[in-house]
Amino acid sequence: MTSRQSHRRSAAARQRSLHPRSLHPRLLARIAGGAVLALAALSSYAHYDIGLARASTAQTHPTAPHPAVPGGSPTPTPPPTPAAPTHIWRMPTPVAVPPAPTLTGYVMAVTQPNTTVSGSCSAGTSVQITAPHAHVTISGHCAAVVITADSVILNVDQFNLAYISGKHVTVLYQRGTPTVHNYGAGTHVTKV
Question: Which residues, 6 or more positions from 160, have their beta carbon under 8 angstroms from its beta carbon?
């Protein structure tokens, strides 16, 4: 190899290092497209961020001009007082249910659920129902009726006092003006 050829090769290598190879046109288009999308995203984020900053500044600092006070400095306007929220749900105060009274004397007790029971009261007799879904019919005059079970139907001629803590209880009576302590939801005591 002659010196002239080696000189030409070294000159060609120097020229290649000074002028790198150009990238493929499709690759250049992809790089340019990605750069455009990135700039667009940054631009929209910047506009969104500026909008939020302006909105929060407008809420905290009113831009209305202050009235001029003769011979003095303008008085700053106090920030608005927020109104009390009206959409807050308040939990109802629970009703304290006192314990059932202790019955004395003869007590007819209904303790079997899903039953139909008939009976009669005489002077001083009380009825206590602790069985759910019971249908009870009582004739005569009862001293007291205590119902602590749910979904009970009671037909009674007459009673003096009732204590009801069960839910969805129906008491139908014929005579008298009894004292009723009703603590059960969906409970009805009706004279028929």
Answer: 141, 142, 143, 144, 176, 178, 179
Output the CA torsion sign for 122, 126, 131, 136. Answer: positive
CA angle 176-131-99, nearest 5°?
Answer: 65
Q: Are 153 and 133 in contact (CB under 8 A)?
A: no
Rounded CA-CA distance 143/159 in Å is 6
Residue type, 53: A
Distance of CA 25 to the CA centre of its chain: 59
Pick from 175, 148, 170: nearest CA to 159: 175
Amino acid identity, position 160: N
Q: Are 164 and 181 in contact (CB under 8 A)?
A: yes
Give the other-Cβ count within 10 Å of 28's Cβ.
Answer: 11
Of the candidates 147, 190, 150, the residue with the CA atom closest to the CA atom of residue 172: 190
How far is Cα 130 from Cα 149, in angstroms, rounded to an integer?
5
Split the chain (192 residues) into runs of 10 and give each run's mean pLDDT.
Answer: 65 60 72 76 60 55 54 70 70 72 83 92 89 94 94 95 94 94 92 92
Number of CB atoms found within 10 A of residue 11's CB: 10
| Closest among 166, 161, 160, 158 to 110, alpha carbons compared | 166
